[in-house]
Amino acid sequence: MCVKYLLPNGVGLHHGGMIAPLRELMEELYAKSLLPVLFCTETCAIGLHLPTRSVVFASMGKGLQKFDGVADREVSSGEYKQMTGRAGRRGFDPLGNVVFCCGDEDIKLSKKSKDARNENRFKQFSRIVLRNVEPVLYLANYSPPCQFYLLGAGG
Q: pLDDT by residue (tens digit) across 9-42?
């Protein structure tokens, strides 16, 4: 569906592949509460400060997965907490909502309580939600003169 049909109805789109002016327009409209609904990828949650009342995950069909440019992979605990941490606007909402939409496959699996795939999905979800956030790795390798310059640049 085209953006020109969605925007007048209060629905916006946001993802890293959009042209910058359009993406920035969506961010500004959402920040000013002119868009009640914004469909976005995790780039919106990680790179911007746009708190929201509710965060919705569109499908649990393959579990909590994302495309990393090469293949689908499990969402890390840090990514999950970053995305769900946007739910609940400080000073406006007493609580935030995190919603998982279920498709037909999810409903069929939930009816079979002993189904191995359902159990694996629950284990994956528990692993993501309950584990600690992964440590941040420092990968930069600056030469001593560069380190001296950077440390001195702050003042």
A: 888 888 878 888 988 888 898 888 888 888 887 7
Alpha-carbon distance 64 to 76, whole Å? 9
The residues, ordered by sequence, that sit 6+ positions from 58 with a Cβ below 8 Å of its Cβ are 101
On whether the pTM is more than 0.85, the answer is no
Q: Roughly what angle, to the nearest 10 degrees, separates helices 104-111 and 116-130?
A: 110
Mind listing the domains of the chain with CATH numbers? 3-153 (3.40.50.300)
Whose CA is closest to 35, among 17, 9, 3, 69? 9
**Reduced to 3 states, what is the DSSP secondary structure of residue 99?**
strand
Cα–Cα distance between 92 and 40 in angstroms, integer?
A: 22
Nearest CA-CA partner of 98 in 80, 111, 110:
80
Q: Percentage of the chain surpassing pLDDT 90?
A: 1
